[in-house]
Amino acid sequence: MKHPYDTAYEPPFPAAPVVLYNNEEGLRTEKVQALLDTGSDGSLVPIAYLEEILAPPMADTHIRSHWGEWCAAQLFAVDLELGSLRLPGVFVVGDEQGNEIVLGRNVLNKLRLLLDGPSAFTDFRT
Fold it and tell me: Could you give the number of structural domains in the chain?
């Protein structure tokens, strides 16, 4: 599945549309652009999207920011849909400050991922 990079960034950022699901409640988001960050250990989802699907918090944890600071965070389990791929029970950190979904290596390592910078497209498969 090929998806164009997000050109709102300079340089353009690898991205793909995702849908978040809470199967227990039967709720889902609309398609939302997610940034694909190979340097991130985990995935971040803005709290607003998690509240929209009534995703229950699973655990409290601490995460380290890219500046090396530790901060408290909550983990949520959601199902992710990327195109025709469905990834059940993915742990994400609820992001109280950001407004973008960032998919890190906990998701990306489940995919065959090609980041084609010269053509500004992402291609992935399971």
Answer: 1
